[in-house]
């Protein structure tokens, strides 16, 4: 059964790390004040990071690992996820070509004005 490890940011800026087999249901529970004591005192919460695992015990193990991390280390993990998402969504067209650090297939012609 799949499992999810997640990090929530609470209204006071604190982080809560948890694991579940049903991420949507668990997030709704947190928002309704039915989650952990930490989150129900700090509503609303927002999901800032999530990892999916094949088994819930793997997600639980990861939760316990991250709970031992410093705030700075958690923020680096969250930021690396945001950076990866931004890079994956980045527009690669003529206006962004000069900033592109990746490569193009050699069969693809270079951009030309007016294309």
UniProtKB/TrEMBL annotation:
Would the keyword Nuclease turn up in this protein's UniProt record?
yes
Can you provide one Gene Ontology molecular function annotated for this UniProt record? endonuclease activity
Q: Keywords for this entry?
A: Endonuclease, Hydrolase, Nuclease
Is Nucleotide-binding set as a keyword in this record? no
Q: Where is the GIY-YIG domain?
A: 1-76
What PROSITE patterns does this protein map onto? GIY_YIG
Q: Which organism is it from?
A: Flavobacterium terrae
Hey, which family's this protein in?
A: Belongs to the UPF0213 family.
| Name assigned to this protein | Putative endonuclease
Q: Which domain of life is it from?
A: Bacteria
InterPro entries listed in its UniProt record: GIY-YIG_endonuc, GIY-YIG_endonuc_sf, UPF0213_domain
């Amino acid at each position: 059964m799949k499992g999810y490890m997640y990090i929530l940011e609470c209204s006071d800026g604190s982080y809560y790390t948890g694991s579940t087999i049903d991420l949507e249901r668990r997030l709704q529970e947190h928002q309704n004040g039915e989650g952990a004591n930490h989150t129900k005192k700090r509503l609303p919460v927002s999901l800032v990071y999530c990892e999916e695992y094949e088994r819930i015990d793997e997600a639980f193990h990861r939760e316990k690992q991250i709970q031992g991390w410093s705030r700075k280390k958690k923020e680096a993990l969250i930021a690396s996820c945001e950076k990866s998402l931004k890079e994956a969504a980045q527009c690669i067209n003529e206006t962004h070509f000069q900033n592109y650090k990746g490569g193009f297939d050699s069969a693809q012609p270079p951009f030309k004005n007016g294309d």
